[in-house]
Design brief:
heterotetramer, A: 406 residues, alpha+beta, Butyryl-CoA Dehydrogenase, subunit A, domain 3, 3 domains, C: 364 residues, Butyryl-Coa Dehydrogenase, subunit A, domain 1, four-stranded antiparallel beta sheet, Mycobact_Acyl-CoA_DH (chains A, B), Acyl-CoA dehydrogenase (chains A, B)
Amino acid sequence: MDFNDTAPEAEYRAKARAWLEANIGEYREPTEFGRGHADFVRHSKIWQKKKYDAGYTGITWPKSMGGQGLGPMNSIIYNQEESRFHAPTGLYAIGLGMCIPTVFSHGTPELIERYVAKALSGVEVWCQLFSEPIAGSDLAGIRTKAVKDGDTWTIDGQKVWTTNAHLSDFGIIVCRTDPSKPKHKGLTMFIVDMHAPGVEARPLKQMSGGADFNEVFFTNVKVHDSHRVGAEGDGWKVALTTLMNERLAVGGKPSHAPGYKTLMTLAAGIQTDNGPAISQSTVRERIASTYIADEGIKLTQMRAQSALSRGEMPGPEQSISKVVVAKTMQDLASFAMDLNQSSGVVTDGSNPELNRLQGSYMASAGLRIAGGTDEILRNIIAERVLGLPGDMRPDKDTPYNEIKAM
Amino acid sequence: MDFNDTAPEAEYRAKARAWLEANIGEYREPTEFGRGHADFVRHSKIWQKKKYDAGYTGITWPKSMGGQGLGPMNSIIYNQEESRFHAPTGLYAIGLGMCIPTVFSHGTPELIERYVAKALSGVEVWCQLFSEPIAGSDLAGIRTKAVKDGDTWTIDGQKVWTTNAHLSDFGIIVCRTDPSKPKHKGLTMFIVDMHAPGVEARPLKQMSGGADFNEVFFTNVKVHDSHRVGAEGDGWKVALTTLMNERLAVGGKPSHAPGYKTLMTLAAGIQTDNGPAISQSTVRERIASTYIADEGIKLTQMRAQSALSRGEMPGPEQSISKVVVAKTMQDLASFAMDLNQSSGVVTDGSNPELNRLQGSYMASAGLRIAGGTDEILRNIIAERVLGLPGDMRPDKDTPYNEIKAM
Amino acid sequence: MNFDFSDDAKTMRESARKFLDANAGPAIARKSMNGTATYDADLWKAVIDLGWTAARVPEEFGGVGLTAEESCVLAEEAGRSLAPIPLTSVLAATEALLRAGSKEQQARWLPGIAEGKVIACVGWGEGNAASPSTAALTVKDGKASGVKLPIADLLGAQLAIITANGPKGVQLYLVDLGGAGVKTELVETLDLVRRSGKLTLDNAAVEALGDPDAYQDWLDRAAILAAFEALGTTAASMDMTVAYAKDRVAFGQRIGRYQGVKHKCADMYIKLELARAHALHGAWAMGADAGELRQAASAARVASLDALSFTAEETVQLHGGIGFTWESDCQFYYRRNRQLASALGSSAWWADRLVRALERRNAA
Amino acid sequence: MNFDFSDDAKTMRESARKFLDANAGPAIARKSMNGTATYDADLWKAVIDLGWTAARVPEEFGGVGLTAEESCVLAEEAGRSLAPIPLTSVLAATEALLRAGSKEQQARWLPGIAEGKVIACVGWGEGNAASPSTAALTVKDGKASGVKLPIADLLGAQLAIITANGPKGVQLYLVDLGGAGVKTELVETLDLVRRSGKLTLDNAAVEALGDPDAYQDWLDRAAILAAFEALGTTAASMDMTVAYAKDRVAFGQRIGRYQGVKHKCADMYIKLELARAHALHGAWAMGADAGELRQAASAARVASLDALSFTAEETVQLHGGIGFTWESDCQFYYRRNRQLASALGSSAWWADRLVRALERRNAA
């Protein structure tokens, strides 16, 4: 048992590190531009092109798709090395992590030819248009419709929780094309031009104050049938490919989120009626439980990486990640605010450590929902890992347009 | 707002107390005989007859049934006063609390004439035969059948969790009389003679080591149709009367169960690496949370009693009682055993305070199940108090003999 | 036994609920979020006209002379409706003047409070992690310098009742906010509806209000009022969640059918009713000047914060994505939860106070 | 990176599981409940013949010389199967001799352990609330008087390794259970399968095993072995519950369809896998003599007890009434849970140890 690279891994790491050292430039230090800012887009495109030219994009993709044809450990190693710096990478996470793999798994050769390389080299930005106000956890309940007339589809409806919609050039969208079929059967996936007439992306303000997502409205938007991905009615099956990729991507603790060390620092500086906070057993137990959750998830990820390094499939234990991380963040933040007594609620910037925890308290409420709620994730663990039967699904076989909620 | 008796309540209390002081005799001190012991039955019968003669049984029952026709506060007051001593009363709790009220609500005048007074005066002991191995939470799923031939029913099947079955003279039993009807519809209630041929009660040993309950086997047991309670097929409706009475009876913390004071005493005598256990914030928070749970339930019961005292119906808040009490007992016991480090598991009798907690740890696992599991009780609170919809019941309208489990 | 509010208090509760249902609630709270006013002046005027600020003030000082029970139900309804008015601050301050004030001090301040001319607020935090047991701000020769932060409803108030370290120990002091050397400014907090302020004293005149014992006694009473406020907020948050669970459909079922949802709603109710029992115990102890006051107040505070934090967090959770949007009302409960948790000493501090009270009773 | 057991350890795990599935499990545990024997002699003989007691013993002392990883997987499988044999005691004692013993001490005891002629057990509790940091039993001039209680697997053992307060502080001592002044007797505990004993020393000869540092070092290793045992017990308890939830029907559905049931099963799995990650970290730290040993061991202990207690309690609960009967196997997990929780210091004590380790690392 060890935590060391194998010889080929070490070699790849050295190569990646050398390239990064030589090319990282101004991203050696934290950058000033925030997500969504125009500068962020410009910098992202430049950096992505640099990586593309050097062969550090699509590391695990087949060479026929413009990828490097390497294993998942190479990708992990490159990302580890890259994350030591502050390069702008988030713009492509959805497109290259979810959309384009769906296109090259289910798209026609023409679509692959047209879109994959441009996405990989960062010229075109992609988003994923699945969730709707009426269809969150129950994604197959979507209502946005696409109606065919000759070779042209017309899309009408609304999507929501779309990351980077306003910065994207294209999106993959799931629409209902046959409401007389049961809900999972009448769906079809398309590629939609986000600059087409009738597409409108509006930022969606979150309760935390930020606006990381969009609502996207589609009014009479035309899509040629050649931009269909997969067969008519196969949209759910195609979407599952995308979602499988999402489940792999979602999970770990957000980088820079406060953890047990934050609490140790904070508690060392606080006096209670019964002595320093750090000496209180309640505080010490909270430090311990936070360590166990956060470090446990890190170690669990290392178990998965070890399997990948051996060329095996990781076990299902990865599925516990998000549900542990999000609730731990919320509980830690709440506990830490309590420790600060009256000032726990003050957000005036005078206590940066506390302010990070307050931010974490707001963000964690969203993290417990995004990418599968705590409840949905527990269902997934119980059903897919432990093999328990699914919830009753009274609407499963009913035509979509005849479903009555029970 | 006050915690005082009204004038009539105070008068009744004084009368009851005077009678008890004059008659309590040897039960002033704790008694030696355990539940189920023959001595216990003999003592119980003598004490019940004494109460009956003095007018302290059936306090809230109509006078026409041999009761006193008084309000619930009179009953509560008498019980409060009686519980200051150690009189043997448990033998009649089920019969007079659940069975006989069902008989006088749904039985024929002949049945009432025959059974009620003998039960009230303690001559005959009753048990309640509802649960089956296959039908616990889902009580309407019972399988024990009763088949009619002329005026005689023949009962075959098995009941379980029957308190005092081996000490009882009669029982009320729910049987399936028409398996072609949906599960709630084909049931009928009977009075069964527990000494009849074919009735066999076997003690059911619990994991805690005790045997407070029985399994009861019915083999070709004959019951005359005159001993039917309610109409054929109305068994579920009749059983609900019984269960409503059960819900009122179940709930509070078992008397003499360890509570926050036990933990305070224990913690005062234990040293940890960081000083006396009682000084540790984790211990103090556990004392606080136990106080909040246990005293909160007591205060909630007082809210209900206050409503009764005003002649009003108590609110639904009583329904939280058992689910709070049972889990609090389990958690307190577990915490206290931990505090004792290595000796937490030792049951050799050298530490009576700890031994009570260990006993509570075993008993609480049963208390979380008996009379409605934590899960069923949460369903009841959510559905009946908060008005949320019920779980899906795919078998609700299916004939019993065609039900397939999903 | 009559362990319940008096008929008068129940009548007051019904009429307050009816008025606030019509005139407050999340929509009114949302209006206050973006305004520059520190409270809703129209609503506050209406509340004064209804006599709520006068309810607890004795008749000799121009009030109605009602009991602590009426203050408790008003606090609960203010919490339920998220009303952006300084009502609970005024109720707590009134209680301080009643418990700790001299006749002269009462005569000076209570008539103005009753009439609605004086808004009074309460401050003990000092912007660090001070506990309610301590105060860095020290009074010498009737003058004080230092900072109290955050103080809910400070902006717009005329009177602040603060804790400070005086010659006899930590106790309450009166600060006339119009006096010399007194500065008030708005301070940002997680709660965007109920605004808090920073009070800076620069050799400002302060006046002792009672003694350290009176402070402790008042603190218990203030905790009971705060517990009722938290109960009201919890109930509103739970009600909104239950209504949503009855309505929202996923996978062909109303989500309230799923035990994952319904058991959480049941837990909200369980925690709420436990807290309500202790708060009611506190209301009785306040009225009866009972020896159980300390333990009832501590238990009410801990239980009500437990109910509120669980309910506010799971309210967002059970609403799913929509609950995390700015437009959803969930955020009001999520943010207010932190405001109430920090306003009068943390749950942990009160749990310790509860055990101290139990220890004292055991020793007695 | 290869953060996983070696192929050898995995092979050992598979064969141990296969053997114990066939030869141990709840039915065998039940047989031991009512017997007078303190362990199942047939099963123990088979285990010795399979070489499990020799696995970790170096070749020079008649063993196979395998690594700590093999001890970890054996402990896990012993826990999973509830095997009524003193295997985990012997593994922990072996580790003590390896870490703290002189060559002479190793030569004296390890060959017998390898061959199965010596059963060794481990005791630190003293029948009061002593923590692993302290010991009332004091050694002077190589002699000790006092009591150690409870000691799992004491009856039938030839060697006990106990903690006692020596001239240098608390450390390990060897006690030859055949020696003069040594008395052993059975003591009742909640665990009816794994029997514990009371060791009474009356001016008995004891022999120092290493020093206080070696004791601390060993304690971490013993905690890691115990964590694997707890993981195994947890997994068995969870598996039984999941199987029941797939089978049992209520209200027309298999109960595993209800989120009230399935989410609890998911929580069992979550806690189990978190604990497994830390235990594996511990197994690595044991093998690598890594500086992270203390924190890995502490985290593994706390996480594994959290997983076990939750799972054991909810195993009874989700089985409903049947789970509370004597005939059900649920009680084995419920009772063993308390045995493992008490055997080597409480979860709270280890949480504190974890934070001390983190503080030391931060200071460094």
